[in-house]
Write a structure and sequence with these properties.
Largest sheet: 11 strands, mixed
CATH architecture of the largest domain: 2-Layer Sandwich
Radius of gyration: 22 Å
Low-confidence stretches: none
CATH superfamily of the largest domain: D-Amino Acid Oxidase, subunit A, domain 2
Order of helices and strands: EEHEEHEHEHEHEEEEEHEEEEEHEEEEH
Strand content: 25-35%
Number of strands: 21
Mean pLDDT: 94
CATH topology of the largest domain: D-Amino Acid Oxidase, Chain A, domain 2
CATH class of the largest domain: Alpha Beta
Number of helices: 8
Bound molecules: flavin-adenine dinucleotide
C-alpha cells in the first residue's frame, strides 16, 4: 500500500531552543509546523550551556554591541515571559593583581553594559567594598584583590526552558516527533519531501535548526549554503555544595573567563567553561582529563587553601559545542552572532539557522518568521 505523505507548511529539523522557538512563533502565526528531532527535545547544545540569560559582557571587548544589545533586550523579555524559569541574579566580578584586565577597564565595560541595557537597566552595576565581598565569598582569596564589581544578569535552566518552549509550540498545534530517523530529504520543486521511519512528510519550507550538526546535515542532504561553522567545545564541571553563594565571573591569566554558578536548588556548583576547536563529527566530540584539569587549575588559583578542589570533587561533567559562524569566503572571521541563510529554489524555501545563543531565541524566531513572510 502506498504511504500517503502528511503535508505541513513548514518542517523544522532539530528541537533545540532555536528549532522550538521558531516552531512556537510560526505556530502562533497559524502555520502548520512539524519538528523532526533525531534524539530528545533539548538534548543537544540547549542542555549543555552555562544556563545564563545574558548580554555577554565579554563580547563588548570585541565590539559586538549589536549582539549584546539584542541579547539584553531578549533577556528582559524572557524575565517577563518565564518568571519561574529565568531570574535576574547578582554576579560578582573580582579583579585581582594578576587579572589580565585592569579594574578601570572592567568598570568601564560594566557602565557600557548598563548603558546597552537602556531603559531595561533597573539593576545598575557598581563597585563594592572589599569587606562586603569578603563577608560572603569566604572560599575566594582576599589577598591580591584589587576591586570587586557587582552587576546583574539572568540565570535559567536551559533544558527546562527548551521543553517549555516546545510545550508552547505543541499547544499552538505544532507536531513534534522525537527519536525519528530521517532516511532521505528530496526537493521536489514545489515541496520538500522528508522520508522517515514514521512516514513521509512534505512542506514547501524546510528549516535546518540542527545547531552544531548543521554542516553535517547540509553535507548529507547536499543542501546549498553560504556559511559553514567552526565547532568550539566547552565543558562544565559540577561539584557538591555551594562554593560561593552568588555567581562569580572569573578571569584566567590568558584573558579567558569562566563562571562559578551556584545552584542552591540542587545544592551544587557548576564551573565552566573551556574553549577548544573540534574537527571530529559532533557525536564523537568528548572531553578529556586535560579539560577538567584546566578548570580545576584556574579555579584553584582563586580558592583559599581550605577550599582547593581536586578531581575527586568533580561529580559530573558535560560538554557542548558552540557553532561559530564562518562565512565560506572568509572562514577565519568567526562570529558568535547568528546568521539566517535563506535559499530559494522554485516554490521551495530552505532556511539554515547558523549560531544563535539560548538568550536570543525569541528575536531569532521572529526574524525567521518575517524572513519567510509567514
Ligand atoms: C559550553 C557552552 C556554553 C553556553 N552558554 C550559554 C549561555 O550561558 N547563554 C546562552 O545564551 N547561550 C549559551 N550557549 C549557546 C547556546 O547553548 C546554543 O547557542 C543554543 O543552545 C543552540 O541551540 P540550537 O537549537 O541552535 O542547537 P541545539 O540545542 O544543539 O539543537 C539542535 C538539535 O538538532 C538535533 N539534530 C541534529 N541532527 C539532526 C538531524 N539530522 N535530524 C533531526 N534533528 C537533528 C540535535 O539532536 C539537537 O537536539 C552555550 C553553548 C555552549 C556550547
Amino acid at each position: 500500500m502506498e504511504v500517503r505523505p502528511e503535508n505541513y507548511d513548514i518542517i523544522i529539523l532539530g528541537a533545540g531552543i532555536n528549532g522550538c522557538g521558531i516552531a512556537a512563533e510560526l505556530s502562533r502565526r497559524n502555520q502548520r509546523v512539524l519538528i523532526l528531532e533525531r534524539s530528545a527535545i533539548g538534548s543537544g547544545t540547549s542542555s549543555k550551556s552555562s544556563r545564563l540569560i545574558h548580554g555577554g559582557l565579554r563580547y563588548l571587548e570585541t565590539a559586538k554591541f549589536g549582539l549584546v544589545r539584542e541579547a539584553l533586550h531578549d533577556r528582559q523579555e524572557l524575565l517577563k515571559l518565564y518568571p519561574g524559569l529565568v531570574q535576574i541574579k547578582p554576579f560578582y566580578l573580582p579583579v585581582y593583581k594578576s587579572s589580565p584586565r585592569p579594574a578601570w577597564m572592567i568598570g568601564l565595560g560594566l557602565k557600557l553594559y548598563d548603558l546597552l541595557s537602556g531603559k531595561y537597566s533597573e539593576f545598575k552595576s557598581q563597585r563594592i567594598h572589599r569587606d562586603e565581598f569578603s563577608s560572603f565569598a569566604a572560599s575566594l582569596l582576599q589577598d591580591g584583590l584589587k576591586a570587586t564589581f557587582r552587576y546583574f544578569d539572568g540565570k535559567t535552566d536551559d533544558l527546562e526552558l527548551t521543553r517549555t518552549v516546545a510545550g508552547e509550540a505543541h499547544k499552538s498545534g505544532c507536531v513534534i516527533h522525537e527519536h525519528i530517523k530521517i532516511t532521505a530529504i528530496t526537493n521536489q520543486t514545489t515541496a520538500y519531501q522528508v522520508a522517515t521511519n514514521r512516514g513521509i512528510f512534505t512542506s514547501p519550507a524546510l528549516i535546518n535548526a540542527t545547531g552544531p550538526w548543521i554542516d553535517e546535515v547540509n553535507q548529507r542532504y547536499g543542501f546549498p549554503t553560504n556559511y559553514h561553522i567552526r565547532k568550539i567545545s566547552g565543558i562544565h564541571i559540577v561539584i557538591d555544595g555551594l562554593l560561593t553563594p552568588d555567581l562569580m565571573f572569573m578571569q584566567t591569566g590568558n584573558k579567558r573567563i569562566f563562571f562559578i554558578i551556584p545552584e542552591p536548588e540542587y545544592k551544587r556548583t557548576i564551573i565552566g567553561t573551556t574553549e577548544r576547536e573540534e574537527t571530529a563529527l559532533c557525536d564523537e566530540v568528548t572531553y578529556d582529563d586535560a579539560d577538567i584539569e584546566y578548570l580545576l587549575e584556574n579555579i584553584n588559583k582563586y580558592l583559599t587553601t581550605d577550599h582547593q578542589l581536586t578531581v575527586n570533587d568533580v561529580k559530573d561533567v558535560w560538554i557542548g559545542i558552540r557553532p561559530l559562524i564562518a562565512h565560506k569566503d572568509n572562514p577565519t572571521d568567526l562570529s558568535r552572532e547568528y546568521a539566517l541563510d535563506l535559499q530559494r529554489n522554485g516554490n521551495t524555501q530552505l532556511l539554515h539557522v547558523f549560531g544563535g545563543k539560548l538568550t536570543t531565541f525569541l528575536s531569532l524566531a521572529r526574524k525567521v518568521a518575517d524572513l519567510l513572510k509567514m
